[in-house]
């Protein structure tokens, strides 16, 4: 943990190199003493610590406070957000994630982190060889009533703009009845860190898979849209479905390597999005976290 004093923005300007060095070395760092109370403060500090980027292809709704500064994903409170690396299914993704804690939940809502290098070492077994060698595929159906409408995910109401984005980002797309957009994209499951040169397990294979959903929600969505029409699902790179035991084992390995963040309102959590995955436990109460994405990388 790094202790901060004085004006949050002035402190961030003076300690940018220190924070970034600590994040590279440790995978994440908690900054205490900034006493952040508003999204605007979080955004101003984050802009001094990194180069903010706008989210595209988001899989859950967010409120936008400023370009690159958002609410945490709108996700059912009683559902966990399992371990993942933000936008690891996209061609352009943030190297840094910054989370400003404005208020804690009444119960639950803990943030946990896991070292992606250690997770990869634990996954080197026949069960995961295909992902390590060949990658993974994400398929999405942008239902307006379930998940994120394509207009929100791509930041436009122009279908031509969406199509151009998909072509330039290696995303296969098709328009179905009712202007429903369906996409699929394939990426490696392992990414080499651009600074440390270390291999990291970097994907959202488990989080966005049907077997990670709560059973009643999965059954409802399959009944409503069919398995082929789920808002999102992950498969092997060649499109083969992933068996439930594989997802169960992956989530168990994440949990084995999870470290809980003991933060307080006013804290800023800075995470190396490649070296470290993050998750959120179910919660009750008025939890408020502001998210900033920074330092975009392109595969």
UniProtKB/TrEMBL annotation:
Superkingdom of origin organism: Bacteria
Record keywords: Antibiotic biosynthesis, Dioxygenase, Iron, Oxidoreductase
MF term (GO), any: dioxygenase activity
Enzyme Commission number: 1.14.11.-
Required co-factors: Fe(2+)
TauD/TfdA-like domain segment(s): 11-292
InterPro entries assigned to the protein according to its UniProt record, in alphabetical order: AlphaKG_dependent_hydroxylases (IPR050411), TauD-like_sf (IPR042098), TauD/TfdA-like (IPR003819)
Enzyme kind, highest EC tier: oxidoreductase
PANTHER family for this protein: GAMMA-BUTYROBETAINE HYDROXYLASE-RELATED (PTHR10696), TAUD_TFDA-LIKE DOMAIN-CONTAINING PROTEIN (PTHR10696:SF56)
The protein's name in its UniProt record: TauD/TfdA family dioxygenase
Organism: Kibdelosporangium lantanae
